[in-house]
## 1
Amino acid sequence: MVAKKAELPVVHELSMLPKLGATRIAALAVAALSLSACEDSVGLESAPKVASVSDLGSCTVENAGEAVFVEDERMLYTCGEEGWKVELEPAEYERTCGAGVVPDDSVSKCGEDGTFTDSRDGRVYKCVKIGDQVWMAENLDFGEQVHHYGTQIVASAAQAQKYCYGDDSTNCAKYGGLYQWNTAMGFCVEYAAMGASALVGKPHRGICPAGWHVPTQGEWERLVAFVQLTDSSAASKKLRSIEGWTDGNGVDAFGWSALPGGSLERQLAWGTTCTRYVVSVCCWNEAWSKLQGAAFWSAAEEDDEQAILVGIGLSDDVKMAAVRKISTASVRCVQD
């Protein structure tokens, strides 16, 4: 007589997970999306996939340790002593996710001709000195294009994922890529819902070219202050390009040349398919903003889920506000 295999239960409710706190639970759920992007993690590509939890099958002593990706929840389940459950250790993700792998590439500085070359992909960018700062004079366009209904999970100085406005690659060529905050900072996707202040360098390169970094809120404020030195009005107009705006071209007084690159706005939406706080299309209402404004990330966090965004639109002022990190914006880098 063949002995019946000992089956272990399915554990898939948040209430049954260890009590790690709301922020940590949110981060652990998000981390399932980043496994393929972090070193020493289980790759989603190599894990078998099933449609739903009900398709996991039996968890027995024979398949203990097996990892299976559940597609409708976008979660990686592991068979263990307590049955099938989301098995994510905080210490492991704090160790493997962070600033990403910084490649050994050459540092590029703004040349006398007002350009520099990103050694990673050979792209040439315009650059300009304003006051004591040297800025990119166009938006960063680095990384592989992915469609907006997916979450950007790969982010480091060596590689990244980007959206192109309207999923049209020609818009990336014109306006640059659109990035989640965690992507701009070179962090794994779990940091879209978890504090990363301890990981932010001074300066912080993120996905900028070697020798450049993501501007701090203070650096943005210095830029605006210098622009307003000779005339305190209409800082936004002075930074906007002289063409490309539907209504309200600027004077581009300093050659900074802001274009209305738009953004992908996301707000949390609890739906019937959202069983957890997951950074996934099922849990977010999202829409392309109109091409009537420019939005840029700073390196500053507001809290675990929000970062400071800099907005240049048709009003006179340059706006700064806290928005969700999972939303997207352009990146302008500053020379180290």
Note: The chain has a mean pLDDT of 75.
## 2
Amino acid sequence: MSGLESVDGSETISGPESDPGSFTVVGSTAEAESATLSRLRAVEARIVAAAEAAGRDPAAIRLLPVTKTHPASALRPVIAAGYRRFGENRVQELVDKANQLRAVEGLEWVVIGHLQTNKAKAAVTAAVEIQSLESLKLAAALQRHLEAEDRTVEVLIEVNTSGESTKFGLPPVEVVSFAQALRAYDRLRPRGLMTLALPSPDPNLVMPCFEALVDLQAQLRDRDGGGWDELSMGMSGDFEFAIAAGSTCVRIGSAIFGPRPTPVQPEPPRP
């Protein structure tokens, strides 16, 4: 048996290590898991509808659940629904959840947030995919640690298509030359591109960000004669626009797991 504390810490979710779908839940935990599963099914239905509206095969779009700041227990209903690959923004949070859920067979982890070079070793040890590659310095650090472990990792180049100074990612004009330079790092397996659009519900603002990534994909394919199949774009607030533009991977957090937990603030000292 394995056990994991619930969101409120008052109950546990337990079951055979070989069967993550058989976890027994009670009380508020059961209600939370039911709500998560309902949200997951609603997102899946929206992905299908968006794909069909765009004349695309829904099976060509990967749903990557993102559990940022949610506890490891929140993944249980999504694991039980058949998902085995999850995204995390922070490497330490990814490592912690991977350790807590190590009894669940077949789980894979994806780094989707900014990755510092001093976290490269932890990232390549715990993750099978890194969607936020944006510098040759990071590529070199990943290469070095991958050589030490004698393995490879899938990577996506992060592109700043919105032009916001607060976001990471390469400027679009640098992507083709950067992709060329990546050929020197044989432990990295470039699969495509990733971006975040402007945070807006207005398709006139959002769609150009996604279309810019599609254009870069076409340039890379023309140069290389194919490849670069993955376009990771679209999150909870804009994934239907992203699917219309050609996304093959949507990164969904709050639309599945609900609002992120608010950190508990320490009480002020008594006067």
Note: The radius of gyration is 19 Å.
